[in-house]
Known about the structure:
Helix content is about 15%, strand content about 45%. With about 550 residues, it is mainly β. The model is unreliable at about 15-25 (pLDDT under 50). The strands form 8 sheets. It has an 8-stranded mixed β-sheet with strand order 13-12-11-10-9-8-21-22, with helices on one face. A 7-stranded mixed β-sheet has the order 14-15-16-17-18-19-20. A 5-stranded mixed β-sheet has the order 24-30-29-26-27, with no helix packed on it.
Amino acid sequence: MRSKRRWYSILLIGVILLLASSIVGCPQPPVIAEFSANPTDINSGESATLSWSVTEATTVTIDQGIGDVPSSGTQSVSPPATTTYTLTAINSSGTVNESVEITVPPPIDELTVHFIDVGQGDSILIDLGETEILIDGGGKSPGVVTYLNQYVDEPLEVMVATHPHADHIGGLIGVLDAFEVDEIWLNGDTSTSETYSQFMSAVNSEGAQVYEARRGDTIEVGELTFSVLHPVNLSGTTNNNSIILSLSYGQVDFLFTGDAEQEAEVSMLTAGLVQDIEVLKVGHHGSKTASSPNFLNAAKPEIAIYMAGTGNSYGHPHQETIDALTQIGAEIYGTDICGTIVVTSDGESLTVQSEKQCEPEPAKFVVSGLSISPAEVRVGETVTISVTITNSGGSSGSYTAILKINGGQVETKNITLNAGESQVASFSVVKESSGIYTVELGGSAGTFTVTEKAISGALAVSASVKFPSLGGGTQTLYATVTLNGQPVQGAAVGITVYYKTVTRTFTASPTGSDGKTQISWSVGRPRGGYTVRIEVVATYQSQTASTTTGFYAP
Ligand SMILES: [Zn+2]
């Protein structure tokens, strides 16, 4: 009984002490807080994880809208910009703040590059926020001012005239008139054309900074830096003196080539300036004088854009260029088909939009010129059957040529052709039995004939005629045709009968299986004292034999 009371006493004292301590504010142990973020660097749209662990706290909160949280936990966050998160842990002994910063680089602006449809000519607007750069302006008419009005926030920071041809500088005269331009980059080449003098007087009255672009120069404008890759000096043709610019935006590289041709390409290749790019403005309107294999293999563009007028008299783009671009796997766009083409990039990905539908026309096959040669053979000899297949569509594709003989399929051939290419599909056929065979190939039909094998040896014909009654009328000649002594079936036999001044010819039906045939003939009324002479000619498989018979009527 005593011991039990003592136990109660101890419990009571403990309760009193506990109450007392809370009344007088005996301090709690300090808060221990751990707070971290992983990762601490993200791109916009990605997320990071906040982790914390707090001991001895009465309340734990995290700012940035997260609020009260348990004493330990994790939270996924995806701040749109660099953000500091602060964890606050409180207990009676105080407040502890722990902060972490998650770094998010500012979002990259969208770069748009407009390959403006100016017919036969070049005009390219590069637009990043309020910064605009114009490379060439197409011809004077219709000009690009109306188009530029939608995008250019004045001033137009940079104008580049790649070279002084009218299809590049003509439209720039109107641009200089319509917009305030800060910087003008020229290649320094001159021209005797009226367009050039108008352009230069517009340049001189603009009040802009004017520069001559040379390899190694950079054009820095806003966040963009263009590198001048060409020319080194004005030693080339007008086209080959074109200013060539490269532009890198994030991971995306552009190359603007003006009307540069292979000479300029070689110069850049030799200098090691042709890097792997994403977007190529194809040189000189898609002419075969540009876009050499070495250049394209070094540049390896994913997107190739040529600028040419629909139905232009130069034949731009040349098929050779389209083939070469297809060969390296580039997606090809042309202003002649697509109208204005706009490439948009955030520095990582690319999108291409066009004014008009510009999916290339699918492959379209035209089959012509069925040839069966020779049209007649012997058993065991080869007949060659062919047609010409042309891809008159706009894309490469495969065609299956199906050869049918007497209605049955005997052979097929798969033929892959690039746009505009032609190829002959040829089949060899050997038949083991004679007959007339019908051929169907590529929608056309024809025939060939197979005859029995040639028989070697000497053809011979023998003939007899009965001495006729002299009363006239129809007579009969009997003929036998042999080859090496064996009867020949199917030989043709003809006779010519000479009597006095009369000459007449008669034809027998082909010899039968016994090699025999007979011919009815007449010459009127042969009278005594005259000779009837009959020449007999037998023909079989290109061999000929002849004999003579007849009679004398005494
Ligand atoms: Zn041009």
